[in-house]
Automatic annotation (TrEMBL):
Species in which this protein is naturally found: Acidihalobacter prosperus
Keyword ATP-binding among record annotations: yes
Included range, full protein: 1 to 237 of 314
Coiled coil: none
Residue ranges of domain ABC transporter in the record: 5-236
Name under which the protein is recorded: ABC transporter domain-containing protein
Top-level taxon in the UniProt lineage: Bacteria
Keywords of this entry: ATP-binding, Nucleotide-binding, Transport
GO MF annotations in UniProt: ATP binding; ATP hydrolysis activity
Amino acid sequence: MTKALSIRNLRKVYGQDIVALKGIDLDVDEGDFFALLGPNGAGKSTTIGIISSLVNKTSGEVSIFGCDLDTQKSEAKTHIGLVPQEFNFNQFEPVEEVLINQAGYYGIDRRNARTRAERYLKQLGLWEKRRQMARSLSGGQKRRLMIARALVHEPRLLILDEPTAGVDIEIRRSMWSFLREINAQGTTIILTTHYLEEAENLCRNIAIIDHGEIVENTSMKRLLAKMVHETVILDVA
Ligand code: ATP
C-alpha cells in the first residue's frame, strides 16, 4: 500500500537542549484518517511543522507520498494541505479572495481558482460570506475558511492541528462530517487533537505521543478495546 507519510528516527532539538522529538517512527497509509494525540508539549505541532516544512528537523527522514523532504521538498509540499492552529490568512481580504490568492501560490489560474473556491465555500457553509472581510467571520467560520484554504490546491494529504479547538459542538459535528466526506473521496487526513472523543469519532488509526516519543501506535478499535480492558482490570484491583 502507498504510504502517505513515512517518518524514520525523527529528532528535533530546539536551541541547545530542548529535545522535542526523541527519534520517532511513524507510517500513515494512503486513504487513512489518522490521529496524533498527546498532552500539551508532547511534540505534536513540532511533528506537523516538520512534515509541512515549516520547522527544520535536527535529524531523521521524512517522506510524503514517496518524496523525500531533503531532496524533493517542493514536490512533497504540493501534496500537503496544512490547517495550523493559529489563523494566518490575511484578515483584510474578502473570504473568496483568501482562497483565490492561495490557489495562485500553486500556479492555479483565477478562473479555475474561483470554481474551486465556490465548491469549498459551499461545502463548508461559507458561500454567503464570500464577499465579507475575513476578519468579520466568527472563530468557527475562520476555522472552516482555513480548511477550505488548505484544500484549494487539492492536496493528497490534509493535516489539521487541533482543528476544532474552541469550536462549539454543533459546528464541530458539521466539520467532522465534512472531513469524513473528503476522506471517503480519497484524501488522507492526519489530525492532532486533545479530544479522544474526536479521534474516536473520526480516525481509523492513532499514535499517542508523549515527551517526544510515540508511546502507542495502533488502530482506534484496538486502543479502545485495550482501554476498556485496562479499566476492567483496574476495577477488579
Ligand atoms: P500543544 O498541544 O500544547 O500544542 P504539542 O504537543 O504540539 O503541544 P510542541 O508544540 O511540539 O507540542 O512542543 C514540544 C516541545 O518543544 C515543548 O517542550 C515545547 O515547549 C518545545 N518547543 C516547541 N516550539 C519551540 C520553539 N520554537 N522553541 C523552543 N522550544 C519549543
